Structure formats: structure tokens, C-alpha cells
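I have a small job for you when you get a moment. Would you make up a two-line entry for one protein for me to read? No commentary is needed, just the two lines. Write everything out right here, beneath this request.
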Amino acid sequence: MKILAIETSCDETAAAVVEKGRLVLSSVTYSQIEEHKLYGGVVPEIASRRHTEQIVQVTRKAIHDAGMPLSEIDAVAVTAAPGLIGALLVGVNFAKGLCLSLGKPLVPVHHIRGHVAANYIRYADLQPPFMCLIVSGGHSHIVEVNGYTDYKVVGRTRDDAAGEAFDKVARVLGLSYPGGVHIEKAAANGDSSAYALPKPSVDGNPCDFSFSGLKTAVINLVHRANQTGRALAGTEVNDIAASFQRTVCEILAGRFMAAAGERGCKKLALAGGVSANGALRELLQTAACENGCELYMPPLSLCGDNAAMIGSQGYFEYLDGHMAGLTMNAYPTYAVDKSF
């Protein structure tokens, strides 16, 4: 079965063809990062306009690269939530038009489930159940993946997502957008023990995250330096970046491993844009080995937003009968453990 997948949840216009949820026949992504860099972050209106301009040619290239006519597609999967509502609607309405013209079923996909499914592409033998840490610009979750479409949330962020904190800290340090990659580069030349930063806990659920206080601590550190009339030197920026990155990774890995230990789970996975962070991958790999766990991580090429992961999850949603009609809407927020 071949799925044509469309992803437009944020600032990447993407299309892919995926066979049986595991084999990627083509994957095309148009990135808007260079344009959004001018503003220090994603501008929703600009993102929506660029999706409108690019979606037809991106989809045509995906079909061409797959070496097949559009008529051979069995279904169209599209990210329906969560994300920027204007951006999502471009993809959803385009997918509806394709389904109407081709007479093919429409499969709505949750963006976060798609990130988890990136692991199915890399690991042909990976099957639920397992526990997954999902870390991206807008989301930080610990979930039990009990089935391909059966999720249970164990922990989540109460305020900022980890990726969002990376972006905001990068901005205050004078680093470019997107923040994660530039924090990691600066951290490589810094001392991760130079600054003792807080690791906020959350009342009510020890598996939940809170990154707002950590972010504020870094901002205050920089502001205090500015108020004394001096700019931060390159070494200080690197040390702050390294200390911040270490603290975020320790929070994520510590709570994830604690949650897995409490539930006796030995099969673990990592997903989301922040899963590309080398320090986080190394820390989790070490922790998994020490605790006798298997750890699955997506390749760097599938960590960020892409349509291949949507096609993979779309296949499993289709098998479970999770399809939609042409009245389907897009949603800026939507629980990952709730099917459409």
C-alpha cells in the first residue's frame, strides 16, 4: 500500500510517498528557515503564504521521485494537528482536493504521532509497546505507545517546550534561529559545569516538565551582565550555552528514565526535532545501556518536520480505520492520545 503524505504544520512544506509504513519511496521538503531567520522565529502568516506557493510543486516532485503516477496512490495522509492553524489548513485543504479528484481515502495524522513513526522507518523490526520521549519546538511529552494508534500520556510540559526554550535562550545569547543547532555548536566550545542552573520540578506529576524557570534563569543571567555595562564575551556565551544544554538534557533524560523504570519498560524511543541534539542522544544512550534498555532513535534526516514520518503513521492510522471525510478540519492543539 502506497501513501502520499502532506506535512505543513509549521515552516516546512513537505510531501512524501511511503509504502507499507516503512519504505520511503520519496521525500521532498521545502524549508522556510532562511526567511524566518530575519524575524528570529516563525511568522505564521508568512509560513502559510509560502506553503500555498510551494505545496503543488513539492507534491509533484514527490510523486515524480517515487517513479509512479499519481493514480497509483492508495490514500492521502495529511497532518491535521497540532500546529499553526493557517499552515495546517493549507495542507489539509490541498489533501482534500487530491482525495476528491482521485477518489482516494483521506487519513488525518497527528503531528506528534508522526514524529514517533520516524522510528518505524529506520527500524523495520520496531513494534509497540514501548515508551517514547518526544521533544520538539512546541512539544515535550513522555508517552506509552501501547499500539500504533494507542497512546497514553505519562508526562508533558506545563509551560515552554524544550525546543522553544532553546530558541528563546539562543536569542538572548545573540545566536541565530533556529536556536537548537546554534546552542549545540556554541556548547561544543563551552564548559557545561560553568553555571549551576535550576531544574524545576512540577507538583502533581514527577514526569511532567517545566522549562520556563530555567529559561528565565538564563535570561536573568544575561541581563545582569548587560546591566553592569558589559557585553558577554564569546567564552561566556559558550559556557552558558553548554550549561543550559546540559541542564535541559539532564531534565529530559532523568525524568524519561525514571518514568520507564517505574513502569518496568525496557524498550525506549526518542522522537521530535530536539532528538537531533547530540548531547541528548549521547546521554540517553548511556542511560539506556546502564539500565539494560533498548533505545531507538530516528536518523538525523527524520528528526525535523518531514512528510515521510506522516506517511508512515498514516499507514497505521489507515489500517485501524482512522479516516476522515471532506468536512475534516485542522486543529492548532489536539491531544496525542486522542484519534481523529
Remarks:
- The chain has a mean pLDDT of 95.
- The chain has two domains: 2-117+304-319, 128-301.
- The two ends are 21 Å apart (CA to CA).
- Strands lie at 2-7, 12-19, 23-31, 75-81, 106-110, 130-135, 140-147, 150-156, 267-271, 294-296.
